[in-house]
Write a sequence for this structure.
């Protein structure tokens, strides 16, 4: 079991890579070419249009930051809020598993929540900047 405990930093890398890749993919088309359309769509949900721009940038730029592990807790909190709003305003009426349901955004929200609580881990820019990260040689005791 100790071996698995030592692998926890790798689990955080996997969480970051998966969440970041999905957010980049979902934010890319909003940022490049459809930003104004997305802001208009957001306004149609009863949310100020400017938050559509914030949402799109949170998904795309935030996804990049999560992948590299920079400002991870802050960005993960923004993604968590983005997913909670998406569930409440778009997906909730479709149910958990229905077409357009909230199963997928709920999974992303849970992953973001875990990163808010645990941080990026030592294999990230955040970890390296804090002095707790990077690759170190483990001394046997």
């Amino acid at each position: 079991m100790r071996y698995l405990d030592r692998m926890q930093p790798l689990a955080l890398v996997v969480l970051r890579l998966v969440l970041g890749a999905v957010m980049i993919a979902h934010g890319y088309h909003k940022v490049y070419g459809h930003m104004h359309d997305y802001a208009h769509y957001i306004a149609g949900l009863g949310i100020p249009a400017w938050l559509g721009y914030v949402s799109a940038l949170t998904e795309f730029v935030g996804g990049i930051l999560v992948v590299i592990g920079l400002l991870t807790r802050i960005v993960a909190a923004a993604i968590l809020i983005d997913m909670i709003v998406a569930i409440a305003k778009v997906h909730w009426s479709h149910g958990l598993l229905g077409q357009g349901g909230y199963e997928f955004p709920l999974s992303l929200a849970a992953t973001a929540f875990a990163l808010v609580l645990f941080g990026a881990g030592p294999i990230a820019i955040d970890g390296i900047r804090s002095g707790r990260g990077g690759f170190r040689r483990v001394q046997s005791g």
